[in-house]
Design a protein that fits this description.
nine-stranded antiparallel sheet; 19% helix
Length: 165
């Protein structure tokens, strides 16, 4: 099973992630309160780069959290791409798009339907279900925003992927 399936994940599906090339904007040492500004500016900047045919997306928007998302963490916002940028790409918003890869290895995943407000409960459930199977989080948390953000909140689909430690 790959990280970007057409069908939703079940309650705790196991998968092996491939190192998919990404184009991302990195944020170091941020907090949850910083997310709205980071998301708005980051995805807008990357979308303009796509519109200029510099990069070609191959999947939905994603966010990768490194560390404890309830404290200070690092964040990558971006998209899977056919070919990651070879050099940093400056954007109009003064951020820089860089190459990254989806972390490879074993993971568990689930799908959350509805408002982004439900993601915290979705993560808690995934951690609990994985823990019941003896699995532990690896300190990386991936959210894949399958639905366009303009979709009605009740109809949003977000896939949550937790690489294992």
């Amino acid at each position: 099973m790959n990280a970007f399936p057409d069908a939703p994940f079940g309650p705790a599906d196991r998968l092996d992630l491939d190192a998919v090339p990404l184009a991302v904007i990195r944020h170091k040492a941020i907090r949850i309160a910083d997310l709205p500004d980071a998301f708005d500016a980051g995805y807008s900047a990357i979308a303009l780069t796509f519109a200029g045919d510099v990069l070609t997306p191959t999947g939905p928007a994603l966010a990768i959290y490194y560390g404890d998302p309830m404290d200070v963490f690092d964040l990558e916002l971006g998209f899977p791409v056919r070919t990651a940028p070879e050099t940093p790409l400056p954007t109009a918003s003064e951020s820089v798009i860089v190459a990254s890869t989806l972390p490879a290895g074993p993971a568990v995943a689930t799908t959350v339907f509805g408002s982004y407000d439900g993601l915290g409960a979705g993560w808690a459930g995934l951690v609990e279900r994985a823990g019941a199977e003896g699995e532990r989080p690896g300190g990386i948390w991936i959210e894949v925003y399958v639905s366009d953000p303009g979709t009605a909140p009740a109809e949003l689909r977000t896939d949550l992927i937790m690489p294992l430690g």
